[in-house]
């Protein structure tokens, strides 16, 4: 029997938040500088490990104990303080669903990671956006002030994607003293490995602080989906109730373990990417173009005209425009750095 409406109902509040947009693949072959990916091909040792992970007729064990222990060791933690997920974006969703439901809210900086506005949709929690400060960094005072009696979580992103600056350790410590102990603080450190500013925060998890890391950016495993959170073991027990079971994969675990075995080579690549980043920033600033502190593997051009992304697209290169806010450009191949400087000079200098 037909009901009044014969289409499936999509919960009305879902329309209020824009869908996550991925950087498109270029139509012509060029540089892909739109998703902060690692431009280096996977290391042979890692490829080999993935090719050897052929027992994928079996599920991965519920918690990947070996990888969990390896990560715990490098952070000086116990294994149960480490929570793995298929990308740290998944863990962001899990955390908000664990702590914030209907009638609650969570506070986050903006502009920041595009996934943040949608994190509360499934549970019904409302997202509260807090503008960045004049340096394009997270405004910790404003984030703390936005916390009210309905707030269950607050997100800090350092370095901030898409703008680049870090949060200072001393400012973060003062912020933690202001945040009520029953409000979860999520420190998103997706780009931590690229940070060279000695004053930058390095989160010490525990209590109401969790730190999120990923294998997607510096470690070059974006397409395999491995991220992790470090924090209180009891919190992770709660998180495991909302986590979708069996969502990690055999090749992803093998790749992550193999990557940790060849970390020296990863560090060399990070050093090279930072050299390219710093050259890019210096040359753009020499052209008179405003570039905030860049501590990730990307630069932010707050004054970029809308035509900039089109000028890149004409050459087959993809960058990421944020309508009315600016344009983010990832640090890619050495030759891509020269192309970025050339195109920006033509459009903005
Ligand atoms: C890329 C990114 C993530 C998500 O990475 P995963 O691939 O899901 O691990 C999380 N936070 C920020 C700020 C990012 O830029």
What's a quick, concise take on this entry?
The chain is α/β, with parallel strands linked by helices and 349 residues long. It has ten helices and ten strands.
Descriptors:
alpha/beta; binds pyridoxal-5'-phosphate; 10 helices; 10 strands
Q: Report the principal-axis shape.
A: globular
Helix content range of the residues, please? Answer: 25-40%
Report the count of strand segments: 10
Please tell me how large the radius of gyration is: 21 Å
Note the gap between the termini: 66 Å
List all distinct small molecules, including ions and cofactors, that are bound in this structure. pyridoxal-5'-phosphate
Strand order of the largest sheet: 1-7-6-5-4-2-3
Number of helical elements: 10
| Helix/strand order | HHEHEEHEHEEEHHHEHEEH
Strand content: 5-15%
Question: Which stretches of 5+ consecutive residues score pLDDT under 50?
Answer: none
Give the helix/strand class: alpha/beta
Tell me about the largest β-sheet: 7 strands, mixed
**Mean of all residue-level pLDDT scores:** 94
Give structural notes.
With 349 residues, the chain is α/β, with parallel strands linked by helices. It is built from 10 helices and 10 strands. The longest helix has 24 residues, at 263-286. The strands form 2 sheets. The protein has a 7-stranded mixed β-sheet, with helices on both faces. A 3-stranded antiparallel β-sheet has the order 8-10-9, with helices on one face. It is globular and about 55 Å long. The mean pLDDT is 94. Bound molecules: pyridoxal-5'-phosphate. Pyridoxal-5'-phosphate (PLP) binds next to helix 3.
